[in-house]
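Lab notebook page, bench 4
Experiment: in silico fold of construct C2
Operator: M.H.
Input chain length: 396 residues
Purpose: comparison with the prior construct
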Amino acid sequence: MQIHPIIRSAAIAHLAPVLFLSSFLFLSCSGGDAPAGGAEEAAHTGHGPEVTLTPEQVKAIGLVTGALEQRGLRTALKANGRLVLPPDKNAQVSVLVGGLVKDVAVQEGVHVEKGQVLATLENLEFLQLQQDYLETAAGLKASEADLRRQQELQADRINAARTLERVEADVAAAQARLAAMATKLRLFGIDPARLSPGAISASFVVRAPIAGNLKHIGVTLGQYAEPNKPLFEVVDNRGLHIDLNVFEQDVARVRVGQKVAFGHAGEPVGQHTATIFAINKAFESDQQAVLVHAKLDDNGEELLPGMFIEALIGVDSTQAQSLPSEAVVSNGDDHYVYVEHEANTFVQVPVRTGTSELGYTEVVPLEPIAPGARVVIKGAYYLLSEQTKGEGGHAH
């Protein structure tokens, strides 16, 4: 049966609104589902992975949060060296004249003041020196009186000029001998002006030339202390400074006034600080390195002369967003921090790291971190471990 073209056209025209309405409803239904699914997916993928802890876990790991902060971080130059004392802070105590040790008044390790008695020695030469001084002083007085008489006689033309000259020479010689003996007495700690026949003694004391700690005692009671041989060693650790070896290629980056962070064996670099005060102008004889001297800003009791140290010299300063180094964790070659998203829920944010100094590291977030956001500064490694558990990842 054939349908007349006009009837067929009319039929199609009649069905067109129905087909259009059906298509519109289908598209509307499809369009409504797509945005809903996209929004739900964005809710899950709009930020990095999350780690949620219980309040008990947060408390157990001691998790602490903080904020990104602007800090002046320095590019650091690594150097090694040792703690040393300047010559005026390390004293070897000896005597010019030997003697028997009558008394040792101190013990090793104790603190002594400048001028404090360390030991008492006996020596007959010291006794003879005092006797000679007193006799010379008495003879000088007689010679000076004779000189005055001869000068008066010479004024009246009574004596010969030769007699006056001889007396003048005797007085000058006695004065020289007395001055020399007075100097020797002072070396023994005796004031010549106070010396009298009743104060003569064979004993003299050895005193500390500087204040400090007694490092070594080289004599015992009854021993004969030899001249010019060290009997005691006193060190004043308040004068400690650092000698750092800086190699040729780095010398131009070092200047007086730069800060140094250092630590000795068994403690982290940055435990102590110092300031550069001098730079040698010649290389060391055994290597292409220059000694750089730095004065300690603090002087802890554990710092001792001769200790080897590792140091970082701050050479260039820059202002940068930073966090405590403990806040930045690594998984392979990637670095992350964790930002608090909700209570006890933390989002992983990838970052790029920069300069590190004194326990702080420059961080450049690769995803936006809201101003004032709380970042995990203690416990981040635990979060990374929880996140990578069962993923086959490896945290560092």
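Observations: The radius of gyration is 45 Å. Helices lie at 5-45, 55-61, 124-155, 161-187, 380-388.
Next step: discuss at group meeting.
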